[in-house]
Amino acid sequence: MRWRSIAAARRVLAQEKGAVIKDWGGRLSVALCYPNSYYVGMSNLAMHTLYRLFNQRGDVVCERIFSGLGRRERENDPPVSIESQRPLSDFDVIAFSVSYELDYFNLVEMLHRAGIPTLARERDADWPLVLVGGPAPSANPAPLAPICDALFIGEVEERLPDLLDVLTTRGATREDILATLATQPGLYVPALANEGTRVTRQWVRDLDSYPTHSVVFTSHTEFGDMFLLEISRGCGRGCRFCLAGYAYRPPRTRHLDTLLESARDGLTHRKRIGLVGAAVSDHPAIDRLAVTLRGMGAGLGVSSLRADSVSEVFLRCLAEGDTRTLTLAPEVGSGRLRRIINKNIPEDKVIRAVRLAAGFRFEAVKLYFIVGLPGESDEDIDEITALVRKITRGFPGLVKVNITPFVPKPGTPFQWAAMAPADVLEARIERLKRALASAQVEVTPESVPWARVQGVLARGDQHVGEALAQITSISLRAWNAALRKAGLTEEEYLVERPLGAPLPWQVVETGVETEYLIQEWRAALDSKGSPECLPGVCETCGVCRAVSVTERER
Ligand code: SF4
Question: Is pLDDT of 553 > 50?
Answer without folding.
Answer: no
